[in-house]
Amino acid sequence: EGITVDPAKVEAVLQWSTPESVTEIRSFLGLAGYYRRFIEGFSKLAM
């Protein structure tokens, strides 16, 4: 099947609250950047 994302990890990310500080935003973008190959249009979403 190739490389896939663990559905449990996707669910965990979906349950996170919205980042409210610069530090929280950077942390989230760092995590999301790790999965960028699975997110269509990631560069536009991250702006």
TrEMBL record:
Gene3D superfamilies: 3.30.70.270. It comes from the Eukaryota. SUPFAM superfamilies: DNA/RNA polymerases. Coiled coil: none annotated. This is Retrotransposon protein. It comes from Trifolium medium.
